[in-house]
Design brief:
alpha/beta; 11 strands
Length: 337
């Protein structure tokens, strides 16, 4: 797991996705692997199919060369590798992702049916089945917003804990603050005391980010409980975010679902890149370590304690009760809406 993988579409190269992947490879000190897939042709006579597939291979080779040239213009020091593989794009990228730290793809902005049933669909199949976190760049980052902010959706599930671990490391890499959001749906039937329900969710939200506060004292974390529909509320937060991080499947949905309904909705409505984080398989070589731990083990970036502090209001050495020479640990800030 020492690559950032990016899918290169020969028919419609996603420049935003390529730029995002190149920037991330530079931040993490990883190689950028550009992969293009040439699917088989089934709806033509065999001689037409051979000619058509040959033309697609030429187009794919050209797209890979153009993508590699752009990466070199953006980050001359980023190592790159290109791969041209025969097969369905979703299958090729899923197999390639098994050896990647991150997989990055653009979005054709297909409808829900098209994303699921289209032969060329990549976003939903890859997000649902990849062995690593998947980044879908449907809309660019909001870099003009200050302070720079990442959002992570929290619901108390095991998957959301992995998402939080990934999100806080990403925030540290970017010197951004992290906004942890728990969306509490409104019910037509009132059950129990609203204030008591908010207090319970605030407690569980704090528990979900507690370990990250200690491990990444350079990151300012705010914790919020919002009322409303999860997709709508998280999509609103994406309007001012660098990226939105979520677990692959939360508490909702049916057992056995590969992708939660909230993720499905955000892939179509979020206005920033969406990062979906799976739960690591227990039988993997890395045991039960989180994705953030796995990434650090393959990256040359400094340990969290040596990260340069940003001007985001995070306490410096010897301030706010911290030991001299060490950053103080602060609890997440809570707001409710």
């Amino acid at each position: 797991m020492n690559d950032v993988l990016v899918g290169v579409d020969p028919q419609d190269l996603s420049i935003p996705a390529l730029i995002w992947a190149a920037d991330e490879a530079a931040r993490r000190g990883l190689r950028l692997r550009l992969v293009a897939a040439v699917p088989s042709v089934h709806d033509r006579l065999w001689y037409d199919a051979l000619a058509h597939q040959g033309a697609m291979r030429i187009r794919a080779e050209s797209a890979l060369a153009n993508a590699e040239d752009l990466v070199r213009e953006l980050h001359d020091g980023v190592r790159t590798a290109t791969e041209l593989v025969d097969g369905a794009p979703a299958t090729v990228l899923r197999d390639s992702a098994s050896h990647a730290t991150l997989a990055v793809v653009g979005s054709r902005r297909l409808g829900r049916v098209g994303e699921v049933l289209s032969e060329g669909s990549v976003v939903v199949p890859l997000t649902a089945h990849a062995d690593c976190p998947v980044v879908v760049v449907r809309a660019p980052e909001h870099t003009a917003v200050h302070p720079p902010t990442l959002v992570v959706g929290v619901d108390g599930s095991e998957e959301c804990r992995e998402a939080v671990a990934f999100a806080v490391e990403e925030a540290s890499l970017r010197e951004a603050r992290l906004r942890a959001v728990w969306v509490w749906p409104r019910s037509l039937l009132s059950h129990g005391d609203v204030e008591e329900g908010l207090a319970e969710r605030r407690r569980r939200l704090s528990e979900s980010v507690a370990g990250c506060v200690e491990r990444y004292p350079d990151v300012r974390i705010t914790a919020e409980v919002l009322r409303g529909h999860p997709v709508e509320q998280l999509a609103l937060t994406s309007q001012e975010s660098l990226a939105l991080v979520v677990g692959r499947r939360g508490r909702g949905g049916y057992t056995g679902m590969r992708l939660g309904s909230t993720v499905h909705g955000l892939l179509h409505h979020a206005e920033c890149p969406v990062i979906t984080v799976p739960r690591p398989e227990r039988e993997g070589l890395d045991g039960d370590r989180s994705w953030a731990d796995r990434t650090r083990s393959h990256s040359d970036r400094p340990a969290p304690g040596s990260v340069t502090r940003s001007a985001l209001g995070a306490p410096g050495p010897g301030r706010d009760g911290g030991a001299k020479g060490r950053p103080a640990v602060r609890p997440p800030e809570h707001t409710e809406r």
